[in-house]
Amino acid sequence: MTLIVASFVSETGLAEALPRLRTLGAVETYTPQPPQDDQPSILPLVVLIAGLLGAGAGFGMQVYANTAGYPVDIGGRPEFSWPAFVPIAFEIGVLAAMLAGFSGYLVVNRLPHLYDKVDEAMLMRGASRDRWCVSIRTGEPSQAHDLLRTMNAEQVEELPE
Amino acid sequence: MALGFRGTSGQWRHYHALYGVLAAIMAPLVCSVHSIVGLDFAGAATVGWHSMMFPPFFIFGAFLSGFATVLLLIMPLRRLLRLQRYITTRHLDVLGRLLLTSSLFVGYAYMMDAFSTYYGGEKAEITMYQEKLFGYYAGIYWATILFNVLLPQLLWVRAIRLNQVLVGLITIGVIVGMWCERYTIVVVSLHRPRLPSSYGIFHGTIWDWLTMMGAVGLFVFGILMIVRLIPVISMFEMREILAPRRP
User: Fold this and answer.
1) A108 CB contacts (<8 Å, ≥6 apart)?
2) Least confident of A16-20, B61-65, B225-229
3) Which terminus of chain B has a smaller tally of CB atoms within 10 A, N or C?
4) Calpha distance A12→B88 (Å, rounded)
5) pLDDT digit string (tens) for A102-137?
């Protein structure tokens, strides 16, 4: 298997090459700004569920503390004073949503991922500036080279494994 | 520091989704944080604090001091880091208008504070309010009015909004004014409580002042460290905005 990295000067160049590159092996793109991509992400759902669970748990904790765990008569008010529990339930819900969003992001992208073979390619230095890069892991490097040449890749770099 | 963010398609996709969701959560969180601080005050039966106005009043105050602080920080930063092309005078102009608007909100809150005190007619409240207007701490109260309500009215004039020295002075005024407002709320309210036996005068000791300066120092340290370590403007977002304009 060989890792080939190629750079394009525009997003459209990269987008046109992608479908044909995918037939040759595992492809990954490295782009300086978000590419056109319509696939949904699971993270909003994770954040919603975590937020609701957190808010419920925060509310439940206060209900437990004030009615069962340590009930105190405060000026004759009812022990289950639910309006007073709302702000804390909201804030704990937000805390849970934020933590789930952040850690969920690391999990779905398998981060931290400090070293990758692709980092050794010189072309990757442009990937965070103004070059649209693609890496392809393939068993037929010569075919990939030919294809990239026909697709007008700006530069191509090969990393043997 | 990027934990291995390389700009892959999946990283960008999840990033975009999460960014939108977290931004949507942050907006109500800002309101809840400040209104709950107001609610903590209003929940006490203390003269000067026990007011329905307090939660929105604190949000208005947060807007005012927030816009002032942002303006005060970005005006030197855009010069020092040469960001004039990205943070333009139009941004300063709009921030000036927002500062003016929030100053009007705060002015409304001060008016309603006075109105509800005298309309409500509770003796302890009126005693405290008279003390606030004309008593020992009157200077602090009138400084609040001057710096938070009257001084920002200069921003009605476009030429003043675009004069960065004047805007800088106004924002420093607002920050001082907001400090005076909090001083009024905490100290002035507590120096005339319901029980005359608890009347008193408060002066900050050297340690109080040093703690305050330490807090300011911590804030400045945090800002300077972030400016040093992190790009102050999101570069890929600038590319998204600017790229379509360049042929």
Assistant:
1) A41, A42, A43, B10, B14
2) A16-20
3) C
4) 31
5) 999 999 988 888 888 888 888 888 888 888 888 888
- d(CA B235, nearest CA chain A) in Å: 9
- Per CATH, which fold does A2-36+117-160 belong to? Alpha-Beta Plaits (3.30.70)
What is the interface pTM, i.e. ipTM, of the complex?
A: 0.85
pTM exceeds 0.90, yes or no: no
Decide if B6 and A108 are in contact by the 8 Å CB cutoff: no
> Which residues of A55-107 form beta strands (DSSP E)?
none
pLDDT of B145 over the 70 cut: yes
Closest partner residue to A112 among B4, B11, B18, by Cβ?
Answer: B4
Residue B90 carries which side chain, given as an amino acid letter?
R
Name the E strands within chain B: none
Task: Kindly identify which residue of chain B lies nearest to residue A91, measuring between CA atoms.
Answer: B29
Contact present, A19 and A134 (Cβ < 8 Å):
no
Residue tagged 């001082």 (tokens): B176
Say which residue, B96 or A140, is predicted with more confidence: B96
Q: How far apart are CA B38 and CA B60, in angstroms?
A: 11
Place of tokens 């080939």: A4
Pairs from B160-167 (Cβ < 8 Å, separation ≥ 24): B161/B92, B161/B93, B161/B96, B161/B97, B162/B89, B162/B92, B162/B93, B164/B75, B164/B92, B167/B71, B167/B75, B167/B92, B167/B96
In terms of Cβ atoms closer than 10 Å to its own Cβ (0-12, 13-18, 19+), residue B180 is buried
Contact between A144 and A17 under an 8 Å Cβ cutoff? The reply is no
Q: Cα B111 vs. chain centroid, distance in angstroms?
A: 19
Among the partner-chain residues B9, B21, B36, the one whose CB lies closest to the CB of A35 is B9
List pLDDT tens digits, range B48-59: 898 888 999 999
Domain ranges of chain A: 2-36+117-160, 43-108
The band of B247, judged by pLDDT with boundaries at 50, 70 and 90, is very low
Nearest chain A residue to B10, by CA: A109
Q: How far apart are the first and last CA of chain A?
A: 7
Sequence ranges of the domains in chain B: 13-199
